[in-house]
């Protein structure tokens, strides 16, 4: 007798077999249409270029879920649930269909084998849920929101119930076919329990298990688009649509040229509908796992920002069709340093930086932004640097390298672009001197732009002043083209990032660490040994590492100094901890500790004597932090270290 | 409430030393910007009209070199901009007379000027303007509140004491910095304002001036100052030593 022909307490199973799927599908469909309509109302975005790269990413991050293992405690259970779940999907579909009149269960050796496999899969899922549940209950990781822990637990219980009911159904079925489930499986355990009961109980247990499964499955299906489990449906799409390059910033509005952008009534994000559809998809896809918050330096120092809560609030808004006002505060919006630690971690590649930039853009247009930031903008507009310094005061004027300032038009193959911070900061200009020294030693002839103090506009853009950035970009691009350079050397990773990701049509740009690593490779530079006996650790600048993937070049330089004692910080490479970045020079959000001070504490924990970095902002932030902590730890730039060992 | 804002374009000298050519400051080489006090003037006008409705007219004297400050005012929300042609170096009395000739021809409730401009720091135009227009005047204003036909005007005097006046409208007020927090004007806003119309007017009155600037001098180099040069750390140690030596540190 087929399943739909059976009955339970007098009700034929085809009745729930039809009604539950129909009602469940209607509810689910209604929810999807509602969610879809929010996406339709959102601002435009462009996410369908570079198809092959997107497919590759979908494979590695979506299917293989490579980021899960960065947090093994929940990542491995997640893999244990995800892969077997994919395997059992066809079985699940068959189970639903069996309640519909006229259907019959597939027969044959292959189906039976597949059923056994599903039993194994169910066992792994069950254990995965159990492990995840225990992890939540016993370890209570800080990265989960305590108030929402019960919801996470409930979802794991529902999934366990789903596989358990399926396993009971299968076990009873195997018994019908007088088959033994494979050892060490859920089916095996259940069958041995069932075998001690009456045949009538066995028959009923199969029907009850099926009904329970039907209810759980469709109940869960309708619950998914209403909670963090929506990532099961949108996650893969979000990964496919994710930004392929790091370090980029979206235009004010996709699909418009700069003239059209200028005439927009308003720009930036003021209300929910101003987010792009991809950013809404981000909100849909958040699984509330808290990896972002766990890595966020702003959270670590107690600022009024938590990326997890930021996205969760967006998700709530999206589920309410985006009709309410945005809950984000200025304090929150100006707490992000754009370091990208959150984006590095998110298993479904949710983007944060562009959202903060878009929110800032609206604040900038409304003129309501931190006073020091607005002063910096005004100075950038008037003087080309955020401090309002006169161009004539910029490095290298007055230094030994002023001869390298380019003539109005030239044919020098290499341009060293110092950017405003190196040109004007008393400590950072040592990097300028060191870069000139190193370039000269490697036998490269180079020039410095005629307005060496002009800012690249990198920060202006990330602080939300797009048209100020555009003005600086156009001036710099002209100067770079006039210099005739084929290669731009930078020492500030923010400058490098601007040239690589914000400017278009420039000659190739590299960071000085890449130049040095190449020179070491070709033997055109060598270092004498370090006999100081001091322990050195390297601090990865966010815009060198995470945003531009340069991790090896600085390490190659450090390793090529013979005898240099080298240690490692706990948070390094793509998990490096932001020093506070340029933002800390213009806005000081409320916090318990400065990020740079926390970073220096991390360095002190390694018993390091010297922190080496490769960014002028990191250099100054960390130097100040070391001195305010009263630590004797020395902070130097990698170019200075290299010059010391020439 | 109809508000006329008198604003001025000034040289933005940054940290460069002022150049003196032919006994006058050579301003031609510097970028120009809105006089700092006038940022507060525009913000106050916006604040008042946002509260009460009405419109803002931005008015400047100084020809095309002053166009940028009018664009900025329009980007902020000024409804109309009027540019009086003339030299940026014009004497205050002539500037006031020219401004008055434009203002007199309009309907207005309040004329706002900055307490002074950052270049000459004469603090004259506001008072002269009120005198020419025959209107009540209050200087160094740190607060304005509209009360029907009058405004309550707050003036800060020596020692942080506050005076509150009732001033009948129309009136001329010159505002002190700190009266509000001026909002930022985005570059896009300024670019968008680039196509808006500016009314250009030629001053008809050129009164005789009895006061003329003769010379501009740098401050004399002080005697007895010691310049510390070299390594920052060494300088800091030396400074600490000097302070201690002279009894500044116990």
Please characterize this protein's 3D structure:
By secondary structure, chain A is mostly helical. Chain A has 4 domains: 3-226, Fumarate Reductase Cytochrome B subunit (Up-down Bundle); 271-369, Fumarate Reductase Iron-sulfur Protein, Chain B, domain 2, CATH 1.10.1060; 388-520, Rossmann fold, CATH 3.40.50.1860; 526-644, AF0625-like (Rossmann fold, 3-Layer(aba) Sandwich). Chain A contains 27 helices and 10 strands. Chain A has helices at residues 14-41, 51-63, 72-97, 109-139, 149-176, 186-194, 199-223, 231-241, 258-262, 277-285, 291-295, 297-300, 307-319, 330-333, 341-345, 353-365, 371-383, 419-424, 429-441, 458-462, 466-483, 493-502, 512-522, 552-559, 595-605, 616-628, 638-644, and strands at 7-8, 11-12, 414-417, 446-447, 487-490, 508-511, 535-538, 565-566, 610-613, 634-637. In chain A, strand 1 and strand 2 (11-12) form a beta hairpin. In chain A, helix 5 packs across helix 6 and helix 8 crosses helix 10. Chain A is elongated and about 95 Å long. The model of chain A has no long low-confidence stretch (mean pLDDT 93). Chain B has a single domain, classed as HUPs (Rossmann fold), CATH 3.40.50. Chain B has a 9-stranded mixed β-sheet, with helices on both faces. The longest helix of chain B has 17 residues, at 36-52. Chain B is of the alpha/beta class and 250 residues long. Chain B is built from 6 helices and 13 strands.
């Amino acid at each position: 007798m087929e399943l739909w022909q059976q009955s339970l307490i007098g009700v034929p199973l085809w009745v729930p077999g039809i009604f539950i799927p129909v009602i469940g599908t209607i509810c689910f469909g209604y929810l999807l249409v509602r969610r879809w309509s929010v996406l339709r109302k959102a601002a435009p975005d462009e996410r369908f270029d570079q198809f092959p790269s997107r497919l590759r990413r979908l494979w590695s991050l979506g299917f293989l879920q490579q980021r899960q293992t960065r947090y093994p405690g929940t990542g491995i259970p997640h893999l244990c649930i995800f892969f077997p779940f994919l395997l059992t999907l066809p079985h699940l579909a068959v189970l639903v269909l069996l309640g519909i009149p006229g259907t019959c269960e597939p027969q044959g050796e292959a189906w039976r084998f597949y059923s056994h496999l599903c039993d194994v899969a169910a066992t792994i899922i069950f254990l995965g849920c159990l492990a995840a549940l225990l992890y939540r209950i016993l370890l209570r990781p800080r990265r989960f929101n305590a108030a929402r822990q019960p919801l996470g637990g409930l979802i794991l219980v529902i999934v366990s119930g789903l596989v358990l009911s399926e396993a009971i159904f299968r076990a009873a079925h195997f018994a019908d076919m007088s088959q033994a489930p494979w050892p060490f499986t859920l089916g095996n355990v259940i069958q041995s329990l069932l075998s001690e009961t009456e045949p009538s109980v066995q028959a009923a247990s199969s029907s009850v298990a099926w009904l329970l499964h039907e209810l759980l499955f469709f109940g869960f299906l309708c619950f998914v688009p209403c909670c963090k489990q929506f990532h099961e449906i949108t996650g893969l799409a979000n990964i496919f649509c994710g930004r392929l390059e790091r370090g980029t910033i979206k235009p004010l509005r996709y699909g418009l040229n700069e003239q059209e952008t200028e005439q927009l009534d308003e720009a930036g994000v003021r209300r929910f509908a101003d987010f792009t559809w991809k950013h809404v998809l981000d909100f849909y896809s958040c699984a509330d796992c808290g990896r972002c918050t766990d890595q966020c330096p702003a959270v670590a120092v107690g600022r009024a920002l938590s990326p997890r809560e930021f996205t969760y609030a967006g998700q709530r808004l999206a589920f309410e069709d985006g009709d309410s006002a945005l809950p984000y505060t200025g304090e929150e919006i100006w707490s992000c340093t754009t370091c990208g630690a959150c984006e590095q971690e998110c298993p479904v590649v949710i983007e944060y930086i562009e959202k903060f930039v878009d929110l800032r853009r609206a604040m900038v247009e409304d003129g309501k932004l931190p006073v020091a930031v607005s002063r910096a903008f005004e100075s950038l507009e008037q003087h080309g640097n955020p401090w309002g310094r006169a161009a004539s005061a910029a490095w290298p004027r007055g230094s030994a390298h002023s001869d390298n300032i380019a003539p109005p038009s030239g044919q020098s193959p290499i341009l060293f672009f110092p950017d405003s911070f190196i040109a004007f900061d008393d400590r950072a200009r040592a990097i300028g001197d060191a870069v000139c020294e190193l370039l000269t030693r490697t036998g490269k002839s180079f020039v410095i732009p005629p307005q060496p103090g002009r800012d690249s506009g990198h920060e202006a853009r990330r602080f939300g002043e797009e048209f100020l950035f555009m003005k600086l970009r156009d001036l710099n691009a002209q100067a770079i083209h006039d210099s005739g350079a084929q290669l731009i050397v930078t020492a500030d990773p923010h400058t490098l990032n601007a040239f690589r990701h914000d400017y278009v049509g420039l000659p190739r740009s590299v960071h000085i660490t890449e130049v040095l690593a190449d020179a070491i490779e070709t033997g055109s530079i060598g270092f004498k040994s370090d006999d100081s006996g001091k322990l050195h650790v390297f601090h990865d600048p966010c815009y060198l590492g995470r945003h531009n993937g340069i991790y090896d070049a600085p390490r190659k330089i450090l390793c090529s100094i013979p005898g240099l004692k080298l240690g490692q910080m706990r948070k390094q490479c793509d998990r490096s901890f932001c020093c506070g970045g340029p933002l800390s020079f213009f806005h000081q959000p409320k916090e318990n500790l400065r990020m740079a001070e926390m970073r220096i504490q991390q360095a002190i924990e390694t018993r390091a004597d010297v922190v080496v970095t490769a960014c002028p902002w990191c250099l100054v932030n960390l130097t100040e932090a070391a001195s305010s902590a009263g630590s004797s730890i020395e902070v130097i730039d990698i170019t200075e270290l290299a010059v010391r060992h020439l | 409430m109809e508000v006329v804002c008198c604003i001025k374009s000034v040289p933005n000298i940054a940290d460069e030393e002022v150049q003196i050519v032919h006994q006058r400051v050579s301003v031609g080489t510097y970028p120009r910007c809105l006089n700092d006090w006038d940022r507060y003037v525009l913000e106050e006008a916006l604040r008042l009209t946002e509260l009460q409705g009405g419109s803002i007219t931005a008015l400047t004297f100084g020809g095309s070199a002053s166009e940028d400050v009018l664009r900025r005012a329009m980007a902020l929300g000024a409804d109309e901009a009027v540019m009086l042609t003339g030299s940026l170096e014009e004497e205050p009395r002539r500037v006031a007379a020219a401004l008055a000739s434009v203002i007199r021809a309009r309907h207005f409730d309040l004329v706002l000027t900055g307490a002074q401009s950052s270049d000459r720091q004469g603090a004259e135009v506001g008072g002269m303007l009120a005198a020419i227009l025959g209107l009540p005047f209050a200087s160094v204003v740190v607060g304005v509140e509209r009360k029907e036909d009058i405004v309550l005007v707050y003036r800060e005097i020596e020692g942080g004491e506050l005076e509150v006046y009732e001033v009948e409208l129309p009136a001329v007020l010159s505002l002190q910095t700190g009266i509000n927090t001026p909002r930022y004007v985005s570059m896009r806003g300024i670019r968008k304002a680039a196509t808006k119309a500016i009314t250009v007017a030629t001053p008809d009155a050129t009164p005789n001036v009895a006061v003329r600037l003769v010379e501009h001098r740098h401050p004399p180099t002080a005697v007895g100052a010691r310049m510390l040069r070299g390594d920052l750390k060494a300088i800091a140690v030396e400074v600490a030593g000097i302070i201690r030596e002279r009894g500044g540190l116990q």
